[in-house]
Inverse folding.
């Protein structure tokens, strides 16, 4: 097996796919191509891919739908390709958890730099400690269902969380009792979208605490580690 990172380029325009594949291969990557979301799934099913370069605007199922699905399954790095007029779609894609974006037309050298940065960041992140796709997780008096993106109390009462709040909670649950820095939390939850807002994680943690902590002013579930970051301080077990 080759140690070269494997990039999947998903774009309905063959000329764009071919040009990107040629450039990336020249710069030391293995490349697979897909002309649609369905074709991308086939590649992902049959091969280990390190990063996906994904066009948002494609006939039929668009890139946002595939982004949502991939992010629900794990942390496979995703770089979106967007047209100038697709700013709203770009923002939605980042909110769904895409790691970066590039606006067409773009310089291939810039895409190469973005790929290197995203892969470097992904490799620096702590590995997930729990596999979450197969079941629910219990923490404190709450039960989280990653597949349904739901949290309920032990009596079944649902807890309303935003997508960002649930994503942050899931990061804590899959890295139990492990201190995560603000930078790691930014990368795991929002990627490049939040890079300019250095207090966004603190604000998000505060919002999450207000919803799950028995006493938000004296948190017992999500602890602050001064100078380090945050960690979930209770056991996380299959529910």
């Amino acid at each position: 097996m080759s140690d070269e990172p494997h990039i999947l380029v998903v774009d309905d325009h063959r000329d764009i796919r071919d040009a990107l594949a040629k450039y990336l291969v020249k710069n030391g990557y293995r490349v697979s191509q897909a002309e649609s979301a369905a074709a991308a799934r086939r590649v992902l099913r049959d091969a280990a891919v390190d990063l996906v370069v994904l066009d948002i605007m494609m006939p039929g199922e668009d890139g946002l739908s595939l982004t949502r699905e991939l992010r629900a399954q794990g942390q496979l790095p995703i770089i979106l390709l967007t047209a100038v007029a697709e700013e709203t779609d770009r923002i939605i894609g980042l909110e769904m958890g895409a790691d970066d974006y590039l606006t067409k037309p773009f310089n291939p050298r810039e895409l190469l730099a973005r790929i290197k940065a995203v892969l470097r960041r992904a490799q620096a992140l702590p590995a997930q400690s729990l596999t979450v796709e197969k079941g629910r997780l219990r923490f404190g008096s709450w039960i989280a269902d990653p597949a349904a993106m739901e949290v309920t109390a032990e009596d079944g009462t649902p807890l309303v969380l935003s997508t960002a709040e649930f994503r942050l909670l899931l990061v804590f649950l899959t890295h139990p009792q492990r201190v995560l820095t603000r930078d790691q939390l930014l990368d795991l939850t929002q990627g490049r979208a939040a890079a300019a807002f250095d207090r966004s994680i603190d604000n998000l943690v505060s919002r999450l605490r207000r919803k799950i902590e028995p006493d938000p002013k004296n948190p017992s579930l999500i602890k602050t580690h001064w100078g380090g970051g945050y960690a979930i301080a209770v056991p996380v077990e299959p529910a």
The two ends are 38 Å apart (CA to CA).
